[in-house]
Write a structure and sequence with these properties.
- The protein is mainly alpha-helical.
- The chain is 69% helix and 0% strand.
- The mean pLDDT is 96.
Length: 287
């Protein structure tokens, strides 16, 4: 088994995951799905991310996505599949990803040897992902690998993202953090989404957020100002370390040199995407 430098796998994930996510914030996805009759923003997100699992209902998506209010999910699923089938949604999503990456990165980067190299490395890492207890990864692993390198890279980044994400949910459960407590405590690390963005996109109310914060205070994990206590910071670190352990296989399979190179390539593409305005400013902060 390959020994990687400390947190090398997490650093690689942190380069690939946001690049995968660019299409969720892209007008291209909204336009493609609106053309198929799915105009609501939440419905489009739930459909795009869950379509690989087939015509799933609200319960399955609430379980697999973890941090959304079930009431919001149930507003759109399974009804969205009467408007656009999973097959239709998957095709629309791939068209949106193609348009988004071309717009954010430019045609030269999309057609570059670096993109082809990144796709090859990411796909090689994904060879070591495992399906058991990982529903979102397993569903996406059953999809064909796109032929064009930039789409193959995005597909592989999706596999790696969902593989780690499925494992992360197990770590959150082990830590005793419910969906909103996970969001509140992550925001308190300074790395999570702003409460305003969570409330606008996850279906929770401000009272729900405050109740979750109070539960965390009761466990000694959050202080009166909403900052993590020493115990809270230690618990969040344990969650990430637990997630790292469950997500080690793909990166150990790729090897230290491959992980370093994939991280370098991914960061370059991510920086270009961010500079092109890929992510809304409202996502971050504590307001």
């Amino acid at each position: 088994m390959t020994t990687l430098p400390p947190r090398a796998a997490r650093r690689c994930h942190n380069a690939l995951n946001p690049l995968h996510s660019t299409h969720y914030f892209s007008p291209d996805l909204a336009e493609e799905l609106a053309a198929e009759g799915v105009a609501d923003q939440s419905a489009a997100y739930f459909a795009a991310r869950s379509a690989a699992m087939g015509r799933v209902g609200a319960g399955t998506v609430t379980a697999a996505f973890y941090n959304f209010n079930h009431e919001l999910v149930a507003r759109h699923l399974p009804a969205v599949w009467e408007t656009a089938s999973p097959k239709t949604v998957l095709a629309a999503r791939l068209r949106a990803v193609d348009a988004t990456l071309r717009r954010l990165l430019g045609e030269e980067a999309v057609a570059s040897p670096a993109m082809a190299e990144a796709a090859e490395l990411a796909l090689r890492a994904a060879e070591a992902c495992t399906r058991h207890a990982r529903p979102l990864y397993a569903a996406h692993a059953d999809l064909p690998v796109p032929g064009e390198p930039h789409l193959a890279f995005w597909h592989a980044a999706t596999l790696l993202r969902e593989h780690r994400g499925d494992g992360h949910l197990a770590a959150l459960l082990t830590a005793g953090l419910d969906p909103l407590e996970a969001l509140v405590s992550h925001t308190a690390t300074g790395k999570g989404m702003a409460p305003r963005f969570v409330l606008a996109t996850r279906g929770w109310r401000r009272a729900d957020w405050e109740a979750a914060a109070e539960r965390l205070r009761g466990r000694g994990l959050l202080d009166a100002e909403g900052e993590l206590t020493e115990a809270g910071a230690a618990l969040r670190a344990q969650v990430e370390e637990h997630t790292d352990r469950m997500d080690a296989a793909p990166y150990e399979h790729l090897g230290a040199a491959g992980v370093e190179r994939l991280t370098e390539l991914g960061r370059g593409f991510l920086l270009a995407a961010a500079q092109a305005g890929a992510f809304p400013e409202a996502m971050t902060g504590k307001g």
